[in-house]
Design brief:
Helix content of chain B: over 70%
Helix content of chain A: over 70%
Shape of chain B: globular
Oligomer: heterodimer
Radius of gyration of chain A: 17 Å
Shape of chain A: globular
Radius of gyration of chain B: 20 Å
Strand content of chain A: under 5%
Order of helices and strands of chain B: HHHHHH
Distance between the termini of chain B: 31 Å
Structural class of chain B: mainly alpha
Order of helices and strands of chain A: HHHHHHHHH
Largest interface: A-B, 33 and 33 residues
Chain lengths: 212, 230
C-alpha cells in the first residue's frame, strides 16, 4: 500500500509542478498541432486516406519525444534525482510516478490532437482511440526509462530520440495497423503485448539506471 | 590464466577460424550443386545466413553478459558486453551488405521492404548504433556500466518484438507473397556446407571478440594509469 502511496505522491509532484510552471504541456500541444499542419502541406493532394493515419502516428511519437526530453529536466537541474534515490522508497516507484505523469501529458496532448486530426484529415474511429491509449502506455513506459538514461548523459536532448525511435517502431506498426487494417484486433493485441513486455522490463531495470 | 597461455589459445582459435572459413567457402563454391530454383547465386546463402545468425549470437551474448553484470556487479562483464555488441554490429552490417547483394541478384533491387531479415537488421543496426552514442556520452563508472547492460538487455527483447512487428506490417503494406523459401528443405550436402560455414563465422566472431576484448582491456588499463599519473 505504501508503494502505491509513494507512486501517487511522486506523480502528484510532477503534475503540480507542471500546473504551476506550465512549461511542458503547452509546448506539446502546440507542437502536435503544428506537426499536423506541416503534414497537410507534405501530403500530395491525391495521397491515399491511409497516408494521413501514418502521419498522425509519426506526430504522436514525435510529441512523446518532445515531452520526454523535458521529463527529467527539473530532476537534473535541481539534482532532485539524488534525493529521490536516497529516499526510503522503492526505486521503481520513481519510474511509475514519472510514467504516470508522462502518460497524463501525452493523453492531454492527444485530446487536442485527435479532434484536430479529425478536423483536418480523416475521421477518428474507436479502434484508433483504443490504439492511441495502448500506444501511450508503451511510449510512457519505455520513454521514461530512456529519458532517465539520456538525462544522465552529456548529449541529453540529442540522445533520447536516437535511443527511443528504434524501440518505437513496433508501436507505430501496431498503431497504423489498428487505424487502417480490416482486422484491427490483431494490432491492438500486439500493442497490449508490447506494453506488457516493455513495462515489466522497464519497471525491473529502472533501479539500475538511476543509482550511482 | 597466464598471458602466454591466453595468447596461444587466441592463435589456435584464429587458425581454426581460417581453416573453417576456407573449407566452408570451398564447399560453398565448388562442392554444393547449384540450387534448382536460384542457380549459382543461391550460394550467397552460405555467407549471408551464417553471418546473420552470428550477429544474433553476438547480441545474445552481449545481453547475457549485461545480465551477469546487473546480477553480480562485477566490472569485467561491462567490457565483455560492450565488445559483444561491437562484434554484433559488425556482423549486422555484413548481413545488410550481403542481403542487399542477394536482393540485387534475385529481384534486381538493392533493397526490398518485403525481406523481413533485412528490415529487422536495419532496425537492430539503428538500435545498437545508439548503444555507442549512449556509451560515449556518459562518463565511465558503475552507472554507465549498468545503463549499457540494461540497453543490451532491451536489445534481445526488441529482436522478437520487432520481428513480429515487421511481419504484421508486411501484411499491411504489401499483400503477403508466399514464395518458396530457399532454406525450407536443405539437402544433405547443403546442410553440411551450411554447418561448416556457420561454424566458421562463429569462430571468426569469437576470434575477433577475444582480440578486441584484449585491446579494450589494455585501453582501459592505460586510461587508469594515465589518470593515476596526472
Amino acid at each position: 500500500m505504501s508503494y502505491l502511496a509513494d507512486v501517487g505522491t511522486l506523480a502528484r509532484k510532477d503534475l503540480l509542478l507542471e500546473l504551476r510552471s506550465r512549461d511542458t504541456l503547452p509546448a506539446m500541444l502546440l507542437f502536435v498541432v503544428s506537426t499536423l499542419v506541416v503534414f497537410s502541406f507534405a501530403l500530395p493532394a491525391d495521397a491515399s486516406d491511409a497516408a494521413a493515419y501514418g502521419l498522425l502516428w509519426v506526430a504522436i511519437v514525435f510529441t512523446a519525444i518532445l515531452g520526454l526530453t523535458r521529463a527529467f529536466a527539473a530532476e537534473r537541474d535541481q539534482r532532485v534525482l539524488d534525493g529521490l534515490v536516497l529516499a526510503p522508497c522503492d526505486r521503481s516507484a520513481i519510474w511509475l510516478g514519472k510514467g504516470i505523469a508522462v502518460l497524463a501529458f501525452l493523453a492531454l496532448a492527444e485530446v487536442v490532437a485527435l479532434p484536430a486530426f479529425a478536423l483536418f484529415f480523416e475521421p477518428v474511429s474507436w479502434e484508433l482511440v483504443a490504439a492511441v491509449v495502448l500506444a501511450d502506455g508503451g511510449l510512457a513506459a519505455v520513454g521514461t526509462l530512456l529519458a532517465a538514461m539520456a538525462a544522465a548523459s552529456r548529449a541529453r536532448e540529442l540522445l533520447l530520440p536516437l535511443l527511443f525511435l528504434p524501440l518505437a517502431i513496433p508501436i507505430v506498426v501496431g498503431g497504423v495497423g489498428a487505424s487502417i487494417a480490416d482486422d484491427p484486433g490483431r494490432y491492438l493485441g500486439f500493442l497490449v503485448l508490447y506494453d506488457l513486455i516493455f513495462a515489466i522490463l522497464s519497471w525491473a531495470s529502472f533501479e539500475y539506471v538511476v543509482t550511482e | 590464466m597466464s598471458t602466454s597461455l591466453r595468447n596461444s589459445r587466441a592463435v589456435a582459435l584464429a587458425a581454426a577460424t581460417a581453416a573453417l572459413l576456407l573449407v566452408g567457402l570451398a564447399l560453398a563454391f565448388y562442392w554444393v550443386p547449384n540450387a534448382p530454383l536460384e542457380g549459382f547465386r543461391q550460394r550467397i546463402f552460405y555467407i549471408h545466413v551464417p553471418v546473420a545468425l552470428t550477429a544474433y549470437a553476438c547480441f545474445g551474448w552481449a545481453a547475457w553478459k549485461g545480465l551477469r553484470l546487473l546480477w553480480t556487479r562485477e566490472q569485467r562483464y561491462d567490457l565483455e558486453s560492450y565488445t559483444a555488441v561491437h562484434m554484433g554490429v559488425i556482423f549486422g552490417i555484413l548481413t545488410l551488405v550481403t542481403g542487399s547483394i542477394w536482393a540485387r541478384t534475385s529481384w534486381n533491387t538493392w533493397w526490398s521492404w518485403e525481406e523481413r531479415q533485412l528490415v529487422l537488421f536495419l532496425v537492430l543496426f539503428l538500435f545498437y548504433s545508439a548503444y555507442f552514442m549512449l556509451r560515449f556520452s556518459v562518463d565511465p563508472g558503475p552507472r554507465r556500466e549498468r545503463m549499457s547492460a540494461v540497453y543490451a538487455l532491451f536489445g534481445v527483447v526488441l529482436i522478437p518484438v520487432s520481428f513480429l512487428a515487421i511481419r504484421l506490417a508486411e501484411g499491411l503494406i504489401h499483400p503477403v507473397v508466399f514464395d518458396s523459401q530457399v532454406n525450407t528443405r536443405l539437402t544433405a550436402s547443403q546442410l553440411i556446407t551450411f554447418v561448416v560455414c556457420f561454424a566458421g563465422t562463429l569462430a571468426l566472431a569469437g576470434s575477433l571478440y577475444v582480440n578486441e576484448l584484449t585491446g579494450k582491456r589494455i585501453d582501459a588499463r592505460l586510461g587508469e594509469l594515465r589518470e593515476a599519473l596526472e
